[in-house]
Amino acid sequence: MKDVLADGLGRKIEYMRISVTDKCNLRCRYCMPEERVKSVAHEDLLTYEEIAFVTGILAEMGVCKVRLTGGEPLVRKDIAELVDKLHSTKGIETIAMTSNGVLLKSMLPELVSSGLNEVNISLDTLNADHFERITRTACLNDVLDGIDSAITYGLKVKLNCVPCRELNNEDVLEVAEMAQDKKLDVRFIELMPIGQGKLYTGISSDLILERLTLKHGTPKELPYDGHGPARYYSFDGFNGRIGFISPISHMFCSSCNRIRLMPEGMLKPCLYYPDGLDIRGMLRRGEKKEIIKTAVTEMLQRKHKKHGFGNGDTGNAEEKRMNQIGG
Ligand code: SAM
Ligand code: SF4
Known about the structure:
Blueprint: E1 15-19, H1 48-61, E2 65-69, H2 79-87, E3 94-99, H3 104-114, E4 118-122, H4 128-135, H5 140-152, E5 156-161, H6 172-176, H7 178-181, E6 185-189, H8 205-216, E7 220-221, E8 231-234, E9 242-245, E10 258-261, E11 266-268, E12 277-278, H9 279-284, H10 289-301, H11 322-325
Parallel strand pairs: 1-2, 1-10, 2-3, 3-4, 4-5, 5-6, 6-9
Antiparallel strand pairs: 7-8, 8-9, 10-11, 11-12
Helix pairs in contact: 1-2, 2-3, 3-5
Bound molecules: S-adenosylmethionine (SAM) and iron/sulfur cluster.
S-adenosylmethionine binds at residues 24, 30-31, 69-70, 72, 98-100, 122, 160, 162, 189, 191-192, 194, 197, 322-323, 327.
């Protein structure tokens, strides 16, 4: 029987987000500064062998789903090799990726044949000028092509949109309406005051839902699927669901099911706090599997009850940017 991994508060941990790089080919204003930023040195990144080894250990402990993220996961060389390794890791049932979608179309054949199952693609606007303003790059059409290709390849596709007053306030309904005709879900994520995110004003999930309701009628609230923080709604005439991830207005920490592996090999129990376990150090010192398992179990006993966004408890908060932590 499969082991169950749980934290000190009894929350079942079955999902690991793996950030493979802090580098990105876009510069979204709420995530990264425009100027060149120092990135993790190549020798400090976990190798694909190390990531697969750690995933194998975590899978033996109870993790069954992984998501590759970053930075932009598709800019790390030969990323399909990692997908392949994770695909052959015993106990891993789902391999997902969060991507900005720019390089997706050309890489999909290899990613899919390596075992990728799901992709979440970031899309904050369908207006090409606004897209360029937000990401500081003119490549909306590449992202749209990536979305269509992912659907054609039969992947489970979700779009992630972060509504900001200053950046895409007037564009969010159009993004939601992508779920009218296409086989995908659209999720709105409340902006978190992390790194560059502190410079912008997020829009609450309730307000987006209100605007959607005004235009498309009252939706049906779907039962919680037991996975992840999103709450979903079904609107009449929409193919896909509309989801809301609301870390600021509706804290979801009591159902948290995840841990995060950062590019330089820190295993983090919570996005908000800087503490974690130096997995890379353990691996490179040649620690035995059982020692690593014990350290992970101990770390999870200390997994925080809840994040501190919005309660003024910023003294203890993570100082890294979202592209460094792995959003
Ligand atoms: N580059 C990939 C992408 O953009 O999808 C993966 C990494 S990105 C950090 C993952 C997600 O985090 C994106 O959907 C992005 O919009 C979101 N994000 C970045 N900064 C954020 C912030 N301060 N608050 C909420 N979401 C944020
Ligand atoms: Fe890059 Fe994703 Fe951050 Fe945008 S949100 S800068 S695409 S890591």
